[in-house]
Specification:
six-stranded parallel beta sheet, 3 domains, homodimer, elongated, DNA-binding, alpha/beta, Rossmann fold, about 15% strand, about 40% helix, six-stranded mixed beta sheet
DNA sequence: CTGTTAGCGCATTCAG
DNA sequence: CTGAATGCGCTAACAG
């Protein structure tokens, strides 16, 4: 060894050995530290001879460049942050997949975190990512105020929201065409001759819920059908509520003959509701499922493309990083009706 | 401003402003830099008065500590790396969810990446994570040699493999009870009176495939039933192959009356195979699905718990980080038979 | 309770 | 083509 042992405070974790640095490599190869840096970063202007000497030393010492130190010097981390509500949820993990795809092509790694739809937690995670100096941030926002990010955005940190727009902040957003998708799905039922179509979905304070309800109303209006609030059921996606909703929709003098469910959880709850299973309601749902084609009654759906949403959001981050100026952009991604 | 403008090389990304540092805060608050550090890190031995002054300066400057610089100094990043094959795949995103849960409790963030089951890519991603000095590494390994990680493991980096063990390296692993699960599932069919049970699964060079096939054979042997290779179909999970497999299983003088599918993709392909749909084969599958209870024929499954797998793997990482010594451990997580 | 000094590992001047 | 010095922002040591 050329250098005296470091280890001022031995880390608690077992026998972690201090890693070799460029200085160690330089010493072993008999060159200057900058030359090692050149080799490591693949810069030119290094003679083949010295390059090989350096590479030999790197291999021998098992040197691996400390990316954190480089970031400190260079001012960029080649990392972007992604905050979702729950990475275990299919739509969001596919958003992550899309983001990752673009990020990887840009030589960038992904720091991911789940907010659990908790305001404090989302804020803390966001600040933690900023503290780590991510080059950009993609957020599937909880329905809380995001004004605390204004300073960062103004300071030039690219922040893109996905799936739903932020409250209290003008920023780039990538959305599915929730309204258009719901309109198309409802229209599909109308074209099949239905005139009384129930709607089961999220409360209106959920962005996607409100948009999809609007799309449903659009379709009714376009067809000259009346909007009947008695056929609309908004709330928690549990079986009991959906069961009650279906029961009500089927009651009265002019019962529903069809049903549009506004999101995956409400769809699942409805599919499991006894009153629905007993009924012969026509059914279209927002969001696709793996086995939707194999159900007792194959399910027609309005599908979105979460991976494309992630890709689009990531692309926007890198565009901003690349110098794209201008006001906040909103990208709306199409949905697809899959008739089954 | 107290300091002269930095910005030796203006970053390309738009008007990124240089961020305030502890020095700026210290100057504004009229204290030493170390005092700022104390306040930021919540250390004690700071008078209420100066603390408030510092906090005022922090708020005014919108200072956010650079975690990268701190890591460089402290030798730990409070980050762990997770490499899966595809984060968009339900099992793996749930592993990620579990890992995240434990990591969050430990104040640690997650750097995630998908290998796409590509050897070079997985290796490159792994090295990239090591380069970023993650405190630990969790890998859902591709079926390639992981000997290149031996040095890192020896140097004290906690590396835990999940879902499948690594090749060419002795390391901590967390697995589902593939063999036991397949045995239980097959046994369930035997108890229902079936004597001719077909098996459709992955090739034997896929670890989980081999384990599950062994579990299937265990169950047959336990029941004194002969193992008939003519009833076992291993290969790619496409509909054509599964259709042919079912057709063959149903042919001959002693046709199958039941079927065990060894993983989710083969299950899906089989469910969609015409010959299967025409048949009245009893069916048990490894891996659960969201809508499995709502199929035309409700599907009995052997379910694993990927989130628990992620939690377990992360816990192992933190145990090692906490000083746990000893040889590589293997944790086997139970599976659950869900009869439908 | 508070401040000063040094240096984590690297890349970036700017000389040789 | 190569190397020595400087500092990125922070915290560990060690004074006061």
């Amino acid at each position: 060894m050329t250098r005296e042992p470091k280890t001022p405070t031995a880390p608690p974790g077992a026998g972690r050995v201090s890693r070799p640095t460029m200085r160690d490599v330089a010493a072993l190869a008999g060159v200057g530290i900058k030359t090692v840096s050149r080799v490591v970063n693949g810069e030119r202007h290094v003679s083949e001879e010295t390059r090989q000497a350096v590479e030999r030393a790197i291999a021998q010492l098992r040197f691996r460049r400390n990316a954190g130190a480089a970031s400190l010097r260079q001012g960029q981390t080649s990392t972007i942050g992604l905050i979702v509500e729950d990475i275990g949820e299919p739509i969001q993990s596919n958003i992550a997949r899309g983001v990752e795809r673009i990020a990887h092509d840009a030589g960038t790694l992904l720091l991911t975190a789940s907010s659990s739809d908790d305001e404090e937690r989302e804020r803390a995670l966001t600040l933690s990512l900023i503290s780590r100096r991510v080059d950009g941030l993609i957020i599937v926002p909880s329905p809380f105020d995001h004004g605390f990010l204004r300073d960062e955005a103004d300071a030039g940190l690219p922040i893109v929201f996905a799936d739903r727009p932020p409250v209290g902040l003008a920023a780039d957003v990538v959305l599915a065409d929730n309204r258009g998708g719901a309109r198309t799905g409802t229209q599909h039922l109308i074209e099949d001759g239905h005139r009384r179509i129930a709607f089961i979905g999220d409360p209106e304070d959920v962005y996607t819920g409100a948009e999809r309800l609007t799309g449903y109303r659009d379709a009714l209006a376009n067809a000259g059908l009346p909007y009947d609030p008695g056929l609309v059921f908004l709330g928690a996606p549990d079986i009991a509520r959906c069961d009650a909703a279906v029961t009500k929709a089927l009651a009265g003098t002019w019962p529903a003959t069809a049903l549009f469910t506004g999101n995956s959880l409400n769809t699942l709850a409805t599919l499991r509701a006894p009153s629905f299973q007993r009924s012969d309601l026509a059914h279209v749902a927002f969001d696709d499922f793996e086995l939707a084609d194999l159900l007792r009654r194959p399910l027609t759906v309005v599908a979105q493309d979460p991976a494309a949403m992630g890709e689009s959001a990531a692309q926007l981050v890198f565009d901003r990083l690349g110098g794209l100026e201008g006001p906040a952009r909103t990208v709306v991604l199409p949905t697809t009706l899959i008739a089954r």
